[in-house]
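Attaching the record inline, Q. Sequence:
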Amino acid sequence: MRSIGTVLLAAIMAGNLAAADEGAWQNLAGLKAAQKIEVVTKNDQMKVEFVRFDDHGIAVRDKKGERTIAQADVKHVRLGRRNRGIWIGAAVGGGGGAAAGAALGSRLANESGGDFDNLKGPIAVACAAVGALIGAVIGTAARRSQTIYRKQ
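Structure, as predicted:
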């Protein structure tokens, strides 16, 4: 338990250190061409592909084509969110649920004198489904997009 707390504390501190440098427009230099980003301006929020940037603005591409957004209009730039955490959470939760369901099914079968012996499989599947659902919800909640630039 102590190591989990240490890891969480380190992650929070690393997030705070990264947040301290979000005001630098030059952070956009770390983006790759065609990388999915979210750009929030004074009037709009858009999910686009990064093209390039300079001191005057950021060039992006969407379904309508390529355009440049002036630096003065940009409130913040974030990396696009990915769904990987949802699937990892569902897989881990499903595996844990299946293991717990198998143990529960075996225990019910043993304590009932064999009356519930034929329910071992369905109990394991039901617990796996519930575990996958819980894991997906946790994966969704843990999904955060990384802010690259925020106007100070």
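The helical segments are 2-20, 84-111, 120-142. The longest strand covers residues 45-53.

More tomorrow.
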